[in-house]
Amino acid sequence: MPENSKKVPEVVINRLPRYYRYLGDLLSQGITKVSSTELSKKMGVTASQIRQDFNFFGGFGQQGYGYNIEYLYSEIAKILGLNDGNTMIIVGAGNLGHALANHAGFEKRGFKLVAIFDNSKDIIGKEINHIKVRDISELEDYLLNNRVDIGVLTVPNKAVHNIAYRLVEGGVKAILNFSYSELNLPDDISVENVHLSDPLMTLSYKLKRSKI
Length: 212
Hints:
By secondary structure, this protein is an alpha/beta fold. It is built from nine helices and nine strands. Strand 5 (127-128) and strand 6 form a beta hairpin. The termini are far apart.
């Protein structure tokens, strides 16, 4: 479906992966049709909000009939670019980088891990998920000779800005940053800063309030 000419709000974009996951679950159960009301119960947002979200992309289905799940699932995949064959690299092969490299969900969602980099002599040359860890000094040459869509950073704070700029210089347009430092890069670079302790602090807040 074509996107509405009006800019899609960030909050709507952030809900799209959730729609995709829930629809995938319904498909795996053999369910073929769902109403906005039924979907709202799973999503925790109103049926009206769901319809508004989908209207940014031209709308799906028809009033009173509900949504064809397979079609909607496929269309959201297109909107999210999951069929584009996005390639990604991981920089930082420590505990977190190692775990991410072994995460089977990436390839299932259309993201292909093509290389891993690190600066530790103890890690360079070893294989993680059948991919040999490269020396970080090879980063520029690799980017020059290979298409990389997404760079995943699991490096210390002191190194993250330098690595991010090297990725940008090498043509990488999207970065997933797991360090505690926020990255501020040119406007044409898409950045997602992931702070793993933030959800824990949110849970801590809710836990504290539940005891009052």
